Amino acid sequence: MKTINWGILGAARVNQRLLPAIENNKYSKILMLASRRNGAAEGCVNQYAKNPEGIKTTTHFDDIINHPEINAIYIPLANEEHTEVALKAIAQKKHVLIEKPMALTKQEVESITKAAKDNNVIVMEGFMYVFHPQFDFILEFINSGKLGKIQYAHSMFSFPIQPARYYRINRSMQDGGGALWDIGPYAIHTLRQVMGGYIKQINATAKINSHQADMSTSGIIEFTDQRRATFDISFECTRRSEFEIFGEKGRLKCHTVWQHENDEAIISYEIDGSAPVIEKIQKGNHFDLEINHFIDCIFNNKESNKLSMNDAIQQVASMEAAYESIQGNKWVSI
Ligand SMILES: NC(=O)c1ccc[n+]([C@@H]2O[C@H](COP(=O)([O-])OP(=O)(O)OC[C@H]3O[C@@H](n4cnc5c(N)ncnc54)[C@H](OP(=O)(O)O)[C@@H]3O)[C@@H](O)[C@H]2O)c1
Question: What does the alpha-carbon distance between residue 102 and residue 85 come to, in Å, rounded to a whole number?
Answer without folding.
Answer: 11
